[in-house]
Amino acid sequence: MRSPLRTTGQPDDAPPGPQAGTAMDGQRPNPPAGTTEPPARSGGRRNATPYRRRSRWAEAQRSWRRHWQLYLLVIVPVAYFVIFKYIPISNAVIAFKDYNVIQGPWGSDWVGFKNFELFFSNPVFGTLLKNTFILAFYLVLASFPIPILLAIGLNEIRDGWFKRTVQMVTYAPYFISTVVVVSMTILVLSPRIGIVNDGLGVLGIPPVDFLGDPDYFRHIYVWSDVWQTAGYSAVIYMAALAGIDPALHEAAKIDGASRLQRIRNVDLPGIMPTAVIILVLGVGNMMAIGFEKAYLLQNFLNLGQSEIIPTYVYKTGLINADFSMATAVGLFNSVVNLCLLLFVNFAAKRITGKGLWG
Amino acid sequence: MSTLTTSEVSAPRRKPAAAKKVREPFRDRVFLVVVTIMLTVLLALVLLPLIYIVASSFSSASAVSAGRVTFWPVEFSLRAYEEALTNPQLLRGYYNSLIYATAGTLISVTLTVAIAYPLSRKTFFGRNVLMTGLIFTMLFSGGVIPTYLVIQDLGMLNTRWALLIPNAIGVWQVIIARTFFANSIPDDLYEAAMIDGASELRYLWSVVLPLSKPLLAVLALMYAIFQWNTYFDALIYLKDPDLYPLQIVLRNMLILNQRGVGATDAAQLLEQQQLANVLKYALIVVSSLPVLLIYPFIARHFTKGVMVGAVKG
């Protein structure tokens, strides 16, 4: 609808108004032609623009006079966002400074990129980056398909106690705290008393110290997360499935499509936009998540793979009190995270025509 | 929707079971069996660890320590619960977490409504700019240390406020609330209220909020569960053990194994060691029980909230 208008409109850029009779006169820069315009589509747009521009300030004043109580309401929340979200962003300048308590974030001496250079040349940098990336990527990959499978499965079977039970039970772990989930994981995997090693013992496999072996850390982290969130994430897909027009299913049924074919050709395309958004959000938050759980699962035996950027920031900043360095590392993480999100959103837009923002 | 229900309901009314079988071709029945098996496996994977934990918590200390418990209590015992429920640290944590959850939820819901409602109104000038400003904080943050400095400057370190205020508003919750207000409250009501001479605040209080009970319930649940389950803020902002929420207490007892042990001889030490093991299972049950008990009743609302957010998310 819009693209033919734009492509045919471009060559007409130079000649102004006169050929207003055709549908392609929708150029915004020549409003004078508006007096003769017959096509409703372009005319509406052209009229609206100058009107809004002239009265923008007046509109604000009018809104303020009539709805001042609304503005009163937002004062406290806006102050909250300024104080607890935006001032910290400005405080992040200490990444480029040698922070000391007396002079405060803005008074301390500038050191440029020294903290970043120190961090990049630190031998732990490579390990940290690798650990964080692999863990985050693994998590996104593993926690993406299972909720979809669960939702489609639940959607196929008919309503009844079995469906309700599966839904209830798989949803429940979402409400358990991270501390408890980690403790459960540790207990279940414990080499002496844990049930997993009991099971392995039956199969004749000697007990494995899962938490003590760095190679198991990622699997433990990721799969306990899937265990906890799959049921919750499935709910979103269930909602998307419920939103699919039943007429599509009816039509497919009449055409003789099997259930599997209907899943592939009706359900999957139907939940595609939701899936894309969830994947974008997942990758976008890739670098942001992780502190709570990684820190709890950490012990000095598995540190080689369990030390990730957020836990390193915590240790550098709050345990060793090197504020500037910790902020630099955190800032690096945030910037990488933002770039990832923008990139994935861009990719999602190119592939499906739908991203996070329109 | 209506086409589906009429066509499916009218046909099998007389003989439901038989009608169903005729309607489903063989390959679809095979497929359904496969789906059911898959779901059963998933169900077992989620449920078995939980059963194991509960079974262990009701077993004797020696049975747990010897690894003899699977999915049923061995040598049934309530000793672990006695120990857990008389533990002063745990009780203190419970009490603190109740305070944090109640006060935090109140503050959070109020502030969320206060910003989400104006954002839902088309006549609110600058709402797009404001919304962009909020969403930006979702994408980019100053980080742990810069936030810590703010809390420090405000003198909130080591006070209860540090857990109640810095995470009071979730942008995601604002989006959910805004979507709800924009889609579920008819504009006609606003016109009517204005004709009757109501002010904006009066309209919000007397018309919008009473119609938004499901939303308020969802927001309250989300915030309450967040407050009950989180531990990160307490870890960095609190030093005083008297202020520790339940999750920090649990972390110290379950993961760091901190417990006042005053054993004198080897046998006593062994017994305390064994008790410490079984106590962990009981602690897990005791701390998660309140949330898991009310969860079936609130799941429906929670689901609704997630869906409201997902529609426009």
- The end-to-end span of chain A amounts to 16 Å
Assembly of the depicted chains: heterodimer
The average pLDDT of chain B is 81
Instruction: Please tally the helical runs of chain B, counting DSSP H or I stretches of 4 or more residues.
Output: 16
User: Which structural class do you get from the secondary structure elements of chain B?
Assistant: mainly alpha
* Helix-strand pattern of chain B: HHHHHHHHHHHHHHHH
CATH superfamily of the largest domain in chain A: MetI-like
- CATH superfamily (homologous) name of the largest domain in chain B: MetI-like
What fraction of the residues of chain B are assigned to beta strands by DSSP? Answer: under 5%
Fold and architecture overview:
- The complex is a heterodimer of chains A (358) and B (313).
- Chain A is mainly α.
- Chain A has three domains: 64 residues, no CATH class; 43 residues, no CATH class; 237 residues, MetI-like (MetI-like fold, Orthogonal Bundle).
- In chain A, 70% of the residues lie in helices and 1% in strands.
- The N terminus of chain A is likely disordered.
- In chain B, helix 3 packs antiparallel against helix 16.
- The longest helix of chain B is centred in the C-terminal third of the chain and has 47 residues.
- The radius of gyration of chain B is 26 Å and the shape is globular.
- The N terminus of chain B is likely disordered.
- At the A-B interface, helix 2, helix 3, helix 7, helix 8 and helix 9 of A face helix 1, helix 3, helix 6, helix 7 and helix 8 of B.
